[in-house]
């Protein structure tokens, strides 16, 4: 959008004409990607490098403010009428015009399966601004170790491409764990990078072909000078926990771990415990509806009919297992608004109250 | 008063379960086709608004003024009825779309959404048709039930009703002030904070329709102004018509507080059903009415996406036949005729009339054991 038009559309005069709707509501008549403030994009290409992954290149609108190497964003897609959002690392270098992400099939996960199977050119996606501080400095340290497993290669790819573009691959060791080369995303590009840059040493461990899971022996054999290397770590949480304890025992250099900002928060432990995130309170989930539990804990949530009709008590649940008191159905919810008066805790529940 | 006396407690419980089943089936089936429906309504509303306002800019030509006003009226009616009212009921919250979120949606009339959600979603839908609790019974301006005591001011209520119809969005905007409670259990400062919210909304609406768009039209300003006013008037009258047909037709039942206390789910469904009436018509008619032509289904399931009421109405009607419950429906002319008669009848002090329902009803089992 031309800057002058953008400025005009964001003005309070135009806002007053559109009121109480937003200018975006009218822009949507032309193209849903257009927005005055919201970053959105369309898929330009979808390449399936491996059997259960897809690499998407997304053209963002001009509300996308760019990213630093290793950052991630929250990507939203409309599936069967419902908007779902998931975090993905940005694998493209900071100065590239298109955003590249790679999605790996995550069990029965709705969004990952949809993207891997059906994402195609033209797909509208909702974006967030880039978040995370996986790699806060633009230049690498003198000696670096990048350690990843499975889809954890994506932020590492972003960092590697950034360092390569800056001519900074002086002494970087990259150790990656995958099932096999056929399952390794970016395998070819990594090999090309290593061929072109002397300072980059690649070690791939293929666990389906006899390679062992991460342990002392592998680390010592492949990275003897670990004590001098700053470490970047990304992969499934089990992998990261195991790796981090091994590494921390060997080096006092900083260890960067990729944590998605919108990832699972610490849910209260114990049977059916209810946690109120904004007030820092916790209560047992045994007795009554979530509304009653909140009131007994001293909170004053909004309410109305107290019978599931008026939606006044709707509240955001960050994560939890709830039972609908009307039909006794139990379901797991994540980042969802639910009516407190007709739901009870069926496990741990974390509420934004 | 209201309840059918031929049903046992077990009957009512089973009746409730059958309705619960319908609700569960529909709510677990929501998906792509529902999303496509609401998006097409949004597109229609927005493009007709843009086209209407653009045509009014050439409003010196009568065809342009008429077409522009008609399109703008259409967009306001769609936005208030099919979109705004339904979005605020939470009917489209399942989509996770911030533009259709009942928590944040602001609709295109002078009434602040937060106050509407209180007076409508909570008060009206919880205390439906309970005299003295449901403030929609006459909106404190009209006497709509024999159980409301007569006062001399009601003699002129036919005139009041006409004024209310022409200015309906203002009646709605002021409705949640609950002026009858001021000095009793409502303080002036509560009124003050509500009033500033109302003024903030009113200001934006007046600015848009009566200052900014006319100003944008330059020499055509008078035509834009009259066009916008006429569109607002058209929307007011249409919404008044549809809404008054929902609970004030001939056979609708009112309830007193005692019989509505400690209701079971089945009894709640029964009160919602007996207190509401439907309108028959074409699909475009239903959409224009925001599917409030399915007032019965809407009161049974306020947070079900509105277009689904069309699908479930035959099933609800069949259940009513089996249980011998009156399912009140009819064309707009007949139903509104009943509303007019009620307004006229209630304007005079009135003793309970003979129950003529058993003569009029098409249901074989008498709905009431004795005169209401």
Please tell me about this protein's structure.
The complex is a heterodimer of chains A (353) and B (372). With 353 residues, chain A is an alpha/beta fold. Chain A is globular and about 70 Å long. About 3% of the residues of chain A have low confidence. Chain A has nine helices and 16 strands. In chain A, 22% of the residues lie in helices and 31% in strands. In chain A, the strands form four sheets. A five-stranded parallel beta sheet of chain A has the order 9-8-7-10-11, with helices on both faces. Chain A has a five-stranded mixed beta sheet with strand order 13-12-16-14-15, covered by helices on one side. Chain A folds into four domains: 31 residues, no CATH class; 95 residues, Elongation Factor Tu (Ef-tu), domain 3, CATH 2.40.30; 114 residues, 3-Layer(aba) Sandwich (Rossmann fold), CATH 3.40.50.80; 79 residues, Beta-grasp domain (Ubiquitin-like (UB roll), Roll). In chain A, a hairpin with a 4-residue loop joins β12 and β13. With 372 residues, chain B is an all-alpha fold. Chain B has one domain. In chain B, 58% of the residues lie in helices and 1% in strands. Chain B has 14 helices and two strands. Chain B has a two-stranded parallel ribbon. In chain B, α1 packs antiparallel against α12, α3 crosses α8 and α7 crosses α8. Chain B is globular and about 70 Å long. The termini of chain B are close together. The C terminus of chain B is likely disordered. The interface between A and B is large, with 29 and 44 residues.
